[in-house]
Amino acid sequence: MVSIEGVQFQYGDDGKPMHFPDFKCSQGDRLLLLGDSGTGKTTLLHLLCGLLRADAGTIRVANCTLDASTDRELDTWRGKELGIVFQRPHFVQSLTVEENLALPHQLTNGKVPHDVLERMDAMLDRLDIAHRKHAKPHMLSVGEQQRASIARALLHNPKVVFADEPTSALDDRNAHVVMDILEREASEATLVVVTHDQRLKDRHPHCVTLQRARS
Q1: Which CATH number fits domain 2-209: 3.40.50.300, 3.40.190.10, 3.40.50.970, 3.90.1280.10?
Q2: What digits encode the pLDDT tens for the residues 103-125?
Q3: 62 bridge partner residues
Q4: Which DSSP category does 82 fall into?
């Protein structure tokens, strides 16, 4: 479901070449991509999402060979197959939580299907933020915003979920709560967590450690 082989990337002619380790995981697996600052975690995440193009190597995610796909094909693929939980929530501040979650479906279909609305209500209830669905994002606590981000990423039942530093600003208790939520809500998807948080290493035995590029 997610695999990379021989992947290299470089920012411009003067950037340091980055070489990423080969790895693969199957449908429903949980994978931890662990690395300190400067090891290329964000770059690798962008490569896996098709937001950057590798200079060499092959990346396959959710039955898509990224280097063989056009930008238009990747845009469609991301909307259907991927869920992304960003490190910092990105919401339209003038819309409510409910409207933010519905927005991708409105842009794609012109309206929100009834089954999506039902799934949204059930998910917000499980995340304990159903009572906040009519609130604007700035009215939510940091934890509530993060839960809303998880709901948005998973609402369309993606095959692969990427989570970028989901626990970086959380204490031990809340870090475990967030990971419990992610793993539960993405139970049928492949979950890839990109982080520097060493606390998650014991929780995810399937771990790939990224190393800083050498001069």
Answers
A1: 3.40.50.300
A2: 887 777 777 888 888 999 999 99
A3: none
A4: E
